[in-house]
């Protein structure tokens, strides 16, 4: 059974986007970046993926430079190449060409010794969809509170 240690998560992505499919991808990293990720010095906020020349590049992933490394040489927000199977690359290249679909990193984790990222094929939600989701969540909470109150009365 594989061991997963989640390092960073992009929770806002699930609120801002409708997730259609999720792909597990590796990343091309330097040694000091891996050490920094193991310490949890990474942020996926405002990150996205783009297909360029039949390769997927991840932009906006901020990995703080490792303390003991040569800090001058490393750009913390440099584009990083995602590693996927050829069939998945072709599929994602075709789907991201469609209007309104984008690639969003959901979480960064270690699968054994390898740094992996979950890439989601997503469609942006409109503002009214977000409001509807919030209203639905509030209604569910009210229902649960009402049921919880009735259970307490019956037990007395």
- CATH architecture of the largest domain, please? Beta Barrel
Residues in helix, %: 25-40%
Q: Report the order of strands and helices.
A: EHEHEEEEEHEEH
Cα Rg? 20 Å
Overall mean pLDDT: 85
Beta content: 35-45%
**Broad structural category:** alpha+beta
Largest sheet: 7 strands, antiparallel
Number of strands: 9
User: What overall geometry do the principal axes of the alpha carbons give?
Assistant: globular
Describe the structure.
The chain has 156 residues and is of the alpha+beta class. It has two domains: 4-125, Small Protein B, Chain: A, CATH 2.40.280.10; 126-156. It is built from four helices and nine strands, in the order βαβαβββββαββα. The chain has helices spanning 11-16, 31-38, 86-96, 127-155, and strands spanning 4-9, 17-27, 42-43, 48-52, 55-59, 62-63, 80-83, 101-111, 114-124. Strands 1-8-9-2-7-5-4 form a seven-stranded antiparallel β-sheet. It has a two-stranded antiparallel sheet with strand order 3-6. The longest helix is centred in the C-terminal third of the chain and has 29 residues, at 127-155. It starts with a strand and ends with a helix. The model has no long low-confidence stretch (mean pLDDT 85).
Could you outline the blueprint of secondary structure elements for this entry?
Blueprint: E1 4-9, H1 11-16, E2 17-27, H2 31-38, E3 42-43, E4 48-52, E5 55-59, E6 62-63, E7 80-83, H3 86-96, E8 101-111, E9 114-124, H4 127-155
Antiparallel strand pairs: 1-8, 2-7, 2-9, 3-6, 4-5, 5-7, 8-9
């Amino acid at each position: 059974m594989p061991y997963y240690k989640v390092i960073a998560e992009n929770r806002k992505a699930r609120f801002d986007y409708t997730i259609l499919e999720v792909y597990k991808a590796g990343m091309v990293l330097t040694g000091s970046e891996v050490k920094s990720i193991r310490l949890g010095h990474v942020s996926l906020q405002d990150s996205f993926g783009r297909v360029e020349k039949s390769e997927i590049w991840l932009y906006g992933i901020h990995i703080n430079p490792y303390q003991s490394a040569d800090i001058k040489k490393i750009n913390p927000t440099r584009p990083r190449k995602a590693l996927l199977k050829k069939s998945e690359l072709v599929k994602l290249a075709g789907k991201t060409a469609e209007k309104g679909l984008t690639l969003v990193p959901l979480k960064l984790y270690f699968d054994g010794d390898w740094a992996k990222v979950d890439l989601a094929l997503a469609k942006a939600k409109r503002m009214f969809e977000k409001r509807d989701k919030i209203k639905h969540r509030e209604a569910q909470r009210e229902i649960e509170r009402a049921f919880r109150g009735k259970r307490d009365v019956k037990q007395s």
